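step=encode ok
step=design start
structure_in=
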């Protein structure tokens, strides 16, 4: 029974997803479904926190298929928290698909269950099955509005996601063909015993396919082609969810696969350099193309690509450098802290966008003119979160970039940090263009921008988090360090 206790959060979330569907059949007031969904997520979150710090010999289940270590708990907390904020923010949006609220909340819960399974997966088979549960839910959510743009977004996401899944599973098949193992620990032991490096053509091809398949999930160049159209066409709360949760689940799988399965010292410098090059390209092209966008959701889509580039700096800073003995300077520690800060800031921006676009019925940046005069608190919250995405004080985004870039410098990646700093300056242009339009200029109307208590509460949580993590980062940094160490025993010096 201990195995089922360890996956109790996933069982709770999946159980509440079924409960929401059944209640939808009998309850006339559909607004209750949001509350039921949040109760399920909070219950799963509480159990997840209780699982923190279990001994290594007590956190592995189903013959090593899953491991509920600190990394799984960290991301389980993140996924539940993000889903709660998205559901709260959706209260002002669900009128657009009032007949299908039960299906909407159930799909979010099922995707959270799949993401939590992926965060704990230690086997290629478990990773792929969990990935498909997440993907199927997200494909449906992207097309949920059922209009032309939303249907196009769902179809593009489905087709390109199917191709990415095929590429990923082919890479996994190659790894199994090489090692005869699907467990990440078994793959690591085989590669170390055989001394295989990326000079082996078959292993190189497998790693390239794995990076390509997972690169689709984190929206990194050149696997980002789905992002602008899907972000624009999907319902705005779904876009917010995709930009944070989908990206985070891609990174947790990359951390699992590469810091466990491919942690052989002969392999680490090679794949770390691949991620360094992808980071430089992604942050540069993402930021440059974002400048030309007139639609705020497309702009935030390209911003998301650039943010993936910053995050990959943490994947590059993992090489064995004996003089870097402080785990706080280990790239994945900064990566995990960055993900938490990015999640709060990006959700804050999207929640503000939901409130504003619900009133003005437009996603065009020019139509945000003067919103600061019509809804000063919403505009102020959006400004704060945009400052955090830029990486300026006094926000969490500043410290997130500081710790991540510091780790990269300590690992001999000063050239990558220079590129990242230049890109931070580029990103300030289009982020502050939105701030300028919001606060300067005459609004088309003097009418206010109403929003529900649920949306205002979600926006307040995001903003408070952005400020608290700047002034008191130590607690989350310690958690991020422990989570990184839990998965990186083979890589840390």
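sequence_out=
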């Amino acid at each position: 029974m201990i195995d089922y206790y360890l996956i109790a959060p996933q069982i709770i979330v999946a159980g509440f997803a079924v409960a929401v569907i059944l209640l939808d059949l009998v309850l006339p007031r559909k607004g209750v479904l949001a509350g039921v969904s949040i109760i399920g997520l909070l219950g799963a979150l509480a159990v997840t926190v209780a699982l923190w710090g279990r001994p290594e010999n007590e956190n592995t289940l189903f013959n090593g298929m899953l491991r509920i270590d600190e990394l799984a708990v960290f991301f389980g907390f993140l996924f539940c928290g993000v889903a709660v904020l998205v559901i709260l923010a959706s209260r002002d949006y669900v009128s657009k698909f009032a007949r299908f609220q039960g299906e909407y909340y159930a799909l979010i819960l099922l995707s959270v269950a799949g993401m939590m399974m992926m965060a704990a997966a230690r086997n290629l088979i478990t990773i792929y099955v969990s990935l498909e549960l997440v993907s199927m839910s997200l494909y449906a959510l992207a097309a949920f509005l059922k209009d032309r743009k939303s249907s196009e977004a769902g179809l593009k996401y489905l087709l390109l996601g199917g191709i990415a899944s095929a590429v990923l599973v082919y890479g996994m098949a190659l790894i199994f063909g090489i090692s005869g193992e699907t467990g990440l620990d078994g793959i690591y032991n085989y590669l170390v015993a055989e001394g295989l490096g990326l000079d082996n053509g078959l292993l190189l091809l497998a790693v390239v396919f794995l990076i390509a398949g997972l690169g689709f999930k984190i929206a990194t160049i050149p696997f980002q082609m789905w992002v602008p159209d899907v972000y624009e066409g999907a319902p705005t709360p779904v876009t917010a969810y995709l930009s944070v949760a989908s990206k985070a689940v891609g990174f947790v799988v990359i951390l699992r696969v590469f810091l466990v399965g491919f942690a052989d010292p002969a392999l680490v410098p090679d794949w770390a350099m691949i991620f360094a090059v992808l980071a430089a390209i992604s942050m540069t092209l993402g930021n440059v193309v974002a400048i030309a966008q007139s639609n705020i959701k497309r702009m935030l889509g390209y911003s998301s690509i650039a943010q993936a580039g910053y995050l990959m700096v943490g994947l590059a800073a993992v090489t064995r450098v004996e003089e870097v003995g402080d785990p706080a300077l280990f790239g994945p520690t900064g990566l995990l802290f960055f993900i938490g800060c990015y999640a709060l800031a990006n959700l804050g921006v999207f929640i503000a966008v939901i409130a504003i676009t619900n009133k003005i019925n437009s996603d065009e940046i020019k139509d945000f003119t003067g919103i600061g005069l019509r809804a000063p608190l919403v505009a102020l919250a959006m400004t704060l979160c945009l400052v955090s995405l830029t990486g300026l004080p006094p926000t969490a985004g500043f410290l997130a970039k500081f710790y991540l870039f510091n780790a990269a410098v300590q690992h001999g990646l000063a050239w990558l940090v220079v590129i990242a700093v230049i890109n931070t300056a580029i990103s300030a242009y289009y982020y502050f263009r939105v701030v300028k339009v919001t606060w300067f200029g005459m609004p088309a109307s003097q009418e206010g921008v109403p929003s529900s208590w649920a949306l205002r509460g979600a926006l307040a949580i995001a903003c408070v988090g952005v400020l608290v993590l700047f002034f008191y980062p130590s607690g989350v940094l310690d958690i991020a360090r422990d989570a990184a160490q839990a998965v990186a025993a083979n890589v840390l010096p």
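step=design ok
step=annotate ok -> DSSP finds 20 helices and two strands in the chain.
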